[in-house]
Design brief:
By secondary structure, this protein is an alpha+beta fold. It is built from four helices and six strands, in the order αααββαββββ. Among the domains are: about 35 residues; about 120 residues, Alpha-Beta Plaits (2-Layer Sandwich), CATH 3.30.70.2830.
């Protein structure tokens, strides 16, 4: 029996012949292909369903986020409308400050000028008249002299109008002697400074005459001096470093 089995195993197998008709084989192949396509389509549909579910969820989250952002924006807009009067008031204050700075940009405070003169004029000289003339668009303070037309500045150093002055002061007065009048004019030349710049420029002596009568012991004189831009009060002008308006 064992030898017969070994012989059966060693018996060569013959060619296999498929006796099924070709039509049956094609139908089986078609069914297998159709089943494969169906499985692939099912997998694709499942994947599309998952993708659709994920995108739907993401869209819902995006819509919720958009709704929250719209609520925040609506709240901010409402807050902006509430604060708009404050912003308008700030804009009006800033405009008023700019206007004030423009108005006071060329202000000369003659209270300071008179204080300087009271310290400069010697005891033996007194003033009887003073006139202010503004040049280059200078503005007079309340109660001051009326601005006159701007004069063309002289080019000779030290002469009236040299150095682009902003105003000119002319004096009339009297003194005990010519030397006293000269001392007054020299004192004007070395007058006060502001921020390193001289306030009074080009002191000029127009005349100094003693009276015709022998009893007259005094001299009358006329003189002038220019005011430099340092004479401006600079009130309400923004500080160059801090940007805050000057008092």
């Amino acid at each position: 029996m064992a030898s017969e089995g070994r012989r059966a195993e060693q018996r060569p197998s013959g060619p296999r012949v498929n006796l099924l008709p070709a039509e049956v084989r094609e139908q089986r192949l078609f069914r297998r292909q159709r089943a494969g396509i169906g499985v692939a389509a099912a997998i694709l549909l499942v994947m599309l369903g998952l993708w659709y579910a994920l995108e739907t969820r993401a869209l819902a989250d995006a819509r919720n986020d958009a709704d929250r952002e719209r609520q925040v924006a609506a709240g901010l807009q409402a807050r902006q409308r509430q604060l708009q009067p404050v912003a308008d008031l700030d804009a009006q204050i800033a405009a008023a400050r700019r206007l004030r700075a423009d108005v006071y940009a060329r202000e000369i405070r003659f209270s300071g000028v008179l204080r300087d003169l009271s310290a400069i004029v010697p005891d033996d000289v007194w003033l009887t008249q003073m006139t202010a003339t503004f040049t280059n668009g200078g503005t007079a303070p309340a109660g001051g002299a009326t601005p006159a037309g701007g004069a063309t500045p002289a080019t000779t150093p030290g002469s009236p109008g040299a150095g682009s002055p902003v105003a000119n002061l002319t004096f009339a007065g009297a003194g005990l002697g010519h030397v006293d009048v000269g001392h007054f004019v020299r004192t004007l030349a070395s007058g006060p400074t502001k921020d390193g710049q001289r306030v009074y420029l080009n002191p000029y002596f127009t005349s100094s005459q003693r009276g015709q009568s022998a009893e007259t012991a005094t001299v009358t004189f006329s003189a002038s001096v220019d005011l430099s831009p340092a004479a401006f009060s600079r009130r309400f002008q923004a500080d160059q470093q801090t940007g805050a308006p000057a008092p």
